UniProtKB/TrEMBL annotation:
Residues 16-41 are annotated as: Disordered. GO terms for biological process: negative regulation of protein ubiquitination; protein stabilization; regulation of inclusion body assembly. GO terms for cellular component: cytosol; membrane; nucleus. Residues 52-123, 253-300, 349-390, 404-481 form the BAG domain. One of its GO terms (molecular function) is adenyl-nucleotide exchange factor activity. The lineage of its organism: Eukaryota, Metazoa, Chordata, Craniata, Vertebrata. This is BAG family molecular chaperone regulator 5. SMART domains: BAG. Keywords: Chaperone, Repeat. It comes from the Eukaryota. SUPFAM superfamilies: BAG domain. Residues 25-39 have a biased composition (Low complexity). InterPro entries: BAG_chaperone_regulator (IPR039773), BAG_dom_sf (IPR036533), BAG_domain (IPR003103).
Amino acid sequence: MAVRWLCSLFGKPFDGGKRMDHGGPQQQQHHPMEQQHQPYNPQHPAMMRLYEVQKEVASLGPQVCTFSGLQNDRDYKRLERELTRLLLEVDQVDTEGKPELQGARKRAAQEVEGLLRYLEENATHPSRVAIEQLSNEARQLVDERVVAPQRAGGVAEINDELVDALQEIVLRLTQVKTEGRVPLRKARYRALTRLCAVQDVIEGRTQQQTLSLPLSGDTHEAVHCINQVMVKVSVARSQLVALLMGLSGRDSCAHLSRILTEMQVELDALDVSGNAAIRNYRKQVVEEINGLLKHLDLEGEGDDTRRYDLAQNNSIREIEAVRAHVSHLREGILRHCAMGDLGFRPKAELQGMLTHLDQVDTAKNPCIREARRRAVVEVQAVITFLDLREALARRQPGPNEHPSHRAVWLVLGSLSDLQAQVLGFDGKRVDKSYMMLEELLTKQLLALDAVDPLGDETTKVARKQAVKFAQNILNYLDMKTDEWEY
């Protein structure tokens, strides 16, 4: 995103901080007559001082417009202090009562005030607060289940429940609205990368627990040394998780990187020639160390806007191209169905899109992963709509069909009609049509709940599938209207 920075203080437009775009302060157009004034003598002491202020503002501007922290951060306080100092210096410029100098000073003050306002707005924005709250929730979870137990000499409580809880927080983070603001995008991205790194470390630990390691020290003289390194790796893993989640006040990524590198050197020096089992054991330990090291380059992660401003990302472009194609096919399918024509069934094309989406490179970026997941849901929604329509058209109930089974099919027929409306829905949650669809789908769930299978196993299975189908439609409607952004 191109950000237009600060303009000249002398005879050029200033915004005074009154309007902000997604990247930072924008310029404000002045009346043409204002621009006809010739700049005041640039050698005048007041103009010289304002020019010096302009240079300092131009230096601080990019820092303000990409700052992604909170008000209690050291950089926030530094920027606020520097801008306040500049504002005071501008206020002290002696204009000698001359309109040209007064105008230049006013524009300079407006520019500084605009940056101060923008700095505060992003640091206190509700979305920034939400990002911090989710980060704290993840931090508390990891501290209680992983870091604190290991510091106390116990064993970390790593299981599927912890992995699922972290994944749920990741999903909620991807759904935080940033309004396209660079600082908010940056804050969300940094929180996500650290949490996803913790997930990788924890999942790697889960895999290690299934290995038949360590080996017995009697097997080879090098095994005792490798076993000792394994103990150090376990400690380093806990330290890494603490670092990533901001739970370590003393350690640093550079310090932990040195420790892990020393472990690699120690392992490389071992003589394990002639014993394939020991070589394999050492190799697995080295691979685990490498897995930890790859997460230690997150200090500067997020400084590159290409990582979190995904509008020009090639993977996102691929996903958007698929979504556009799905939208075109969906419109055609709904149009044919409205005319009673069930011959238009581009199911093979839709299945090909699922294959294409599966091959999209997400680069472990959680926002791209979520974008791909949502695109997959869109494709699957159209496929399930076609499958149900085909099943309803082929259905030939016999005279001995169980009444409860017939009742389930009646509900499925209603759900198919409602799904067509959901697929074509393009509104918001405040719309009456949205509330009507939600209410009608809920009624179908209640209708299924009221069906008594009377011991008929076929009806039990059919009702269970119909309930899942109705819930999927509700979830799809919810997804279409949650205003998610990259």
